[in-house]
From TrEMBL:
The lineage of its organism: Bacteria, Pseudomonadati, Pseudomonadota, Alphaproteobacteria, Hyphomicrobiales. The keyword Membrane applies. It comes from Neoaquamicrobium microcysteis. GO terms for biological process: lipopolysaccharide transport; transmembrane transport. This is LPS export ABC transporter permease LptF. InterPro entries: LptF, LptG/LptF_permease. It is a multi-pass membrane protein. PANTHER family: SLR0882 PROTEIN-RELATED, YJGP_YJGQ FAMILY PERMEASE. Pfam families: LptF_LptG.
Amino acid sequence: MKVVELYILRRTLGIFTATLFWVLAIVWTTQILTRINVVTGNGQSAATFFEIAWLVLPAVIPVVIPFAVGIAVAQTLTTMNTDSELIVISAAGSPRMTVMRPILLLAVGACIISFTVNNFIEPYSRERLRVLVSEARAELITTVIQEGTFQEIEDGLHMQIGERLPDGRFGGIFVSDRREEGTELLYYAKSGATLELNGEHLLVMQDGVVHRKTGDGVSVVQYTSYALDLSQFAASGAGPTLLPKDRTLGYLMNPDRDDPIFKKSPQGFRAELHKRFTEWLYPLVFALIALAVAGDSRSFREARIHPLLTTMTIALVFRWAGFFAADKVWNVPAFTPMVYGVPIVACAVAIFFIATNRVMELPMSIVERATTLWNRLQQRIVALKIRLSGFRRTAPGGSA
């Protein structure tokens, strides 16, 4: 590889790494916050939270990589054009492949990483994540039975334990059950205890009453002993339910015909397989679009939208089309060609612009409208500053 190519690769790789880190950190944080209730709501330890956080990471990486590639390529080429480096490279007689080769090398590497993570790492992390959530659900039986707690076991079912007695039993038990529409059950008990019988977890309440409220009225039943089955709120012994996106590539290609999820929605497995075969292409799509937009040497004084904004706008259109096709194919198999067609067409269009030495740009009408809106926004900001300045001078206690 030539010195110039190494220079371009090093600059692009540096921006790609920095962009990937910060964008990944933001997206990763939002994904973790959506799952923090697994820890706070079920009494899990900090170790479980950090394990869940790491297991979420592989699902985020394939989504972020294409955007990091597009930003890195567009920003590198734009900076080189502004510094007249692209003009010097062209004037020296270097072919366009001198600029394109390191960019394509980075894009191919990103595609390989995306394919590996999406098909060989993410399925195992998703499976382990579901196991952790399932175990947290099962441990809720023991964590919820704590002194002085009032916690929601599931929608419509709440439980509170007043105190823990010296003999290990519980005192002051209250259970509210509103899961059945139109019926409300309130359980009160002076004491109770948990036990396991034939693999089922039970809460045995003693010396209490049950208030049953329906549309016909309220009935009160007093009891000396009542057992509430808690096993129905825990994960079954068969393990967590694995969806198509949690399965490995080999399983998607040859699924178990007795899999209840497969029986219910076989098209979902085929849709996920098509998605796995195309998701890894998008880093190359973003890189080619960036080359088509910012790969030429042009005067930076020429009026046009910033190449980075143009690159991301065009790339997002194709990426959204890919998301749309992948979502639709779950229910409509006719959208399957579109799943493959979007990245292929995007690559073909970008290659056409590159091969014919044309610049891929947004339509001039959009450019003019964006410029007009930006000028109006600047004028309003200036006018607002003037008004605020005048308000401060005329306000009581001001300098005027």
